[in-house]
Design brief:
The protein has about 240 residues and is an alpha/beta fold. Helices cover about 50% and strands about 10% of the residues. The chain is elongated and about 65 Å long.
Length: about 240
Amino acid sequence: MFKGSPLQCSQARLISRSGSACPGSAACYSLARRATVKALANALGQPILYVRSFRRAGGPDEYSMQAVFERARAAAPCVLVLEDLDALVTRENRSFFLNEMDSFAVNRGILTLATTNYPERLDPAIVKRPSRFDRTYRFDLPAVEERAEYIRRWNEAAQPEMRLGADSARAVAAATEGFSFAYLKELFLSAALCWMEGPSPGAMEPVMCDQVELLRQQMEAVGAHDEGDRDNPPR
């Protein structure tokens, strides 16, 4: 990636570029993705370029793709983040995108990260071939230990009367199996708002239990919708 300078890479006849794909479920992905990219940016100290769409009024996707890669080449060394690659690359623009990735113009010093909630929709020519997206980092849902740590940190930051006891915190960590960090964040936000309607010490536990059940119902509804999307992918 950026372990050697462009000069060192050139002298060693290496192309200092890399591509990685970061798949994850729609439920868990967003916060983990942002945290990872932020940590990567801080560690590398390099500019980060985000791309959320290649669509533009009055022109084909290819114009935007060319502009994105030209900007990345001008900013190199840099990190290029392509959000939701399965939606960015279509049958119509796929060939042009692959040409840009394969460096008809040289892509030295560009670390390209692609994210997706639907890795099964990606063309194998994009994710299986070396020098494209040949490294995959999957973001799974947080395990009970990670959920317990999230709850512990929330407790530390909360007002004393809003905090969960040790037993309640363990119970919430166990009850939130299948929750993403985004849903955990929503859980504590919605529970805090409900608690404010009748604030009192010790009242947070029953409020939290009610919100866990409410959010689980929402998750199941969203999950059923996502499964329908997977069965009928966009053309």
